[in-house]
Design goal:
Pectate Lyase C-like; five-stranded mixed beta sheet; alpha/beta; about 35% strand; 5 helices; six-stranded mixed beta sheet; 16 strands; 2 domains
Length: about 220
C-alpha cells in the first residue's frame, strides 16, 4: 500500500504491518490517506495490527485507534515486540501478542500468498474480505458480501454483494457459475443485476469502455 504500511490477508482476516522506524506522525498520515482512498475496502473491517519493535505509549495508541475508528475500522489484535506497547494495547482492550521469533530467517511470502481459497457458504450478514484474489467454492447468499483487492471467482451461485478490485485494481474480474449479485462493483464502477436474468451459465464481469460488462465464460476465453 505504501513504503510505511502494508496489508496482508489470510484465513484469519486482515493484518496491517507498520514500519517500525518511521515517526508516528508520518505513519498516521499515510494510514489516513490509505483509509480514505480505499474507504469501500476498509469500511467495517476488523483487523490485526503489527507494529514491530515500535514503542507505543497509551496516548500514541489512542491516536491510532481513533483514526481507525473514524473510518469504521476495528483493531482486534496486535503483535508487538515492545512490552510497553503490548501493555498499552491490553489496557485498551486489544489482544496483544509478542512478535514471532525465527531461529534463522523469517519466512518469505510466496506469489500465492495474495490468493485466498475457501470452501464455504457466505450467508446473509457475513462479509468475506481479503486484500488479494478470492476463490470461493460455495455460494454467496443474498445479504452476503465479498470484498477483494483482486479478482473474485465463485464456484457456485453469487447472489449477494461483490466488490472486486476494491483497492483500485480496475483489471480485476468477477466470475461465477451463476452470476446474479444484488450489486457488483469493480474498482470504482458498479452495476446491478437486470430484473430479467438470462440463462444460468458461467459468466465473467469486467470493466470495458469505462463500465462493467458481463459475458459468458466461453466468450471471455476467446
Amino acid at each position: 500500500m505504501s513504503d510505511l504500511i502494508s496489508i496482508k490477508g489470510g484465513r484469519d482476516g486482515l493484518r496491517i504491518r507498520f514500519d517500525d522506524t518511521a515517526d508516528l506522525s508520518s505513519l498516521l498520515e499515510q494510514l489516513e490517506r490509505q483509509l480514505t482512498q480505499n474507504r469501500a475496502f476498509f469500511s467495517g473491517a476488523r483487523l490485526a495490527l503489527d507494529v514491530g519493535e515500535r514503542v507505543l505509549t497509551p496516548e500514541a495508541l489512542d491516536q491510532l485507534l481513533l483514526l481507525l475508528q473514524q473510518h469504521g475500522v476495528v483493531a482486534e489484535a496486535m503483535s508487538a515486540g515492545a512490552r510497553e506497547t503490548r501493555n498499552a494495547a491490553r489496557t485498551a482492550g486489544i489482544t496483544a501478542r509478542p512478535l514471532p521469533r525465527y531461529t534463522e530467517h523469517p519466512p518469505q511470502s510466496s506469489p500465492d500468498a495474495e490468493a485466498l481459497l475457501l470452501l464455504r457458504t457466505v450467508r446473509s450478514g457475513q462479509v468475506l474480505r481479503h486484500s488479494g484474489h478470492i476463490t470461493l467454492v460455495g455460494d454467496v447468499n443474498p445479504g452476503g458480501e465479498i470484498i477483494a483487492g483482486g479478482s473474485v471467482v465463485v464456484w457456485g451461485r453469487l447472489r449477494g454483494f461483490v466488490h472486486a478490485g476494491a483497492l483500485g485494481n480496475d483489471e480485476a474480474i468477477v466470475c461465477a457459475m451463476e452470476l446474479r449479485p444484488t450489486q457488483i462493483r469493480i474498482a470504482e464502477q458498479f452495476a446491478t443485476t437486470p430484473q430479467e436474468a438470462g440463462p444460468h451459465r458461467p459468466e465473467v464481469a469486467r470493466i470495458a469502455g469505462g463500465q462493467i460488462v458481463v459475458e459468458s465464460w466461453e466468450a471471455f476465453k476467446k
